[in-house]
């Protein structure tokens, strides 16, 4: 077994929230499903978002310079699949659910558990991915009681019943 395979198998045991990352601006409206999101600091509020440089939307996120991290609820498993499907055109993805905007202009999922509206303040290239450092401009939190996590190569609901 290669180190890369071992790494992927071990990372499958690290549960993480599932998010749809969106952008809009001069390069157009795009989105993708991600689990590689984490906080960096709260002074100033900053998130880290990792994106494969081979992604169809990569250049558009860099050009727009803004993104929104939409944390999915347990009701959003199908939406996660929509935004993970590389064969769908961008405008088709946003026909699902309801969307609004906050400060940056990036699409905000109206029914998300939480949304972090951000400007990309820095970017580093590491291996196959870009690591975006995202300065939070606005936050929207819902009353959604159950989140969606990806663990052991499957989706799981977490939280409490409403």
From TrEMBL:
Q: Which UniProt keywords apply?
A: Flavoprotein, FMN, Oxidoreductase
Gene Ontology terms, MF aspect: FMN binding; riboflavin reductase (NADPH) activity
Q: Which Pfam families match?
A: Flavin_Reduct
For this protein, the record's PANTHER family field holds: FLAVIN REDUCTASE, FMN REDUCTASE (NADH) RUTF
Q: What species is given as this protein's source?
A: Kluyvera intermedia (Enterobacter intermedius)
Q: Which GO terms describe its biological process?
A: pyrimidine nucleobase catabolic process
Ranges for domain Flavin reductase like come to 11-157
SMART domains assigned? Flavin_Reduct
Name of protein: Flavin reductase
InterPro entries from the entry? Flavin_Rdtase-like_dom, NADH-dep_flavin_reductase, Split_barrel_FMN-bd
Q: Which domain of life is it from?
A: Bacteria
